[in-house]
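idk why but the lab printer keeps eating my pages so im just putting this in chat instead. protein + nicotinamide-adenine-dinucleotide:
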Amino acid sequence: MRDIKVRLGKRTYCIKIGSSILSKTGKYILRLSIGQNAIIITNSKIKRLYGSILEKSLAKSGISYSLFTVPDSESSKSYTVMDDLIGKIAMADKGKKPFIIAFGGGVIGDLAGFVAAVYRRGVPLVQIPTTLVAQVDSAIGGKVAIDLPVAKNLMGAFYQPKIVIADTSLLKTLPAREIKCGLSEIIKYSIISSRGFFGFLSKKITSLKRMRGKEVKYVIRKCCSIKAGVVNADEKDTKGIRMILNYGHTIGHAIEAASGYKGSYNHGEAVAIGMLAAASISRKINMISEKEVGEIRKLLSRAGLPAKARRFKSSKIFESLSHDKKFTQGINRFVLPVRIGKVRVVKNIPKDIIMDAIKEITA
Ligand SMILES: NC(=O)c1ccc[n+]([C@@H]2O[C@H](COP(=O)([O-])OP(=O)(O)OC[C@H]3O[C@@H](n4cnc5c(N)ncnc54)[C@H](O)[C@@H]3O)[C@@H](O)[C@H]2O)c1
Ligand SMILES: [Zn+2]
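predcted complex ->
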């Protein structure tokens, strides 16, 4: 199967997608000419499950490596963990410029990516995403970051990897809730860009929930090519194009913030609710039909995603939304579906319409 390319001039890179390709990592890396001194950043769960496959592949290709684990939690995207990690890398690199392998989900990808961006003013980065979210979203596009106490992803950079290696066979061990989280982003891609893909997902959602079958690879490929297309057109999020990837994320982030990121709603669940709220806003301003909103609701529900954030009062979500800088600096902006397969950025939605949509998802 052909690779997907993120086309960014000299920084163009390949996304390799396939089953059991982790064992080819060494071979892929040698072709990049990024050196033979690897620093693997992962957590102990991924190390236990798949570490030996990666280590063997590197050793076979003559690549030396040091492996560091960080705790398995969002809290690893912190200044303290980063500081500790960079100290250990500096001790291990023996004066030679290493490259970094981010081996894990989005937490590892964001943290290791940020370390790669700043260590020695930037060292090459290899993304090996192991969750569905990371394979379809976070490993692609170059946004890397750590969290600060006041907000998520506040300290970050745009730093593209040299290659993304997405081995779909790793997804077999992913917990059901993490699969659902990825499905939420996958459904998002279909709503923002392809009616046909939405139809495909509607047909295959039951088997996709088990992450089995050949459609898994197809779906990951499709999402990667949609995201690659958006990133090619607006790498640094300055042209208003990349913003469409935020469909469902404005109210989704407010739900996550209202839950204090404690996991009562994970990112994918909050985004699913946010996508419904945005569809409802779109309906209220007569941009989308009731029938299509119903179709979105049905697919999200069949994927096992929630439609409501009943644990919160609408006022609490509205308050979190108001803390969002994008929301308060004069004009608010929402990515709203016009129909399934097409979204538009709409400014200045009246507050009472937003409030009504939030009331619906909390009722
Ligand atoms: N940079 C971006 O563009 C971008 C986009 C989306 C999300 N993110 C970030 O990604 C993070 C969320 O990433 P995530 O959803 O991958 O969560 P995660 O990295 O926390 O992984 C979820 C869980 O799955 C486990 N896991 C990973 N791979 C596994 C496997 N193959 N089998 C079994 N268990 C496995 C992890 O150990 C963890 O417990 C957030 O910090 C978010 O901000 C970044
Ligand atoms: Zn997201």
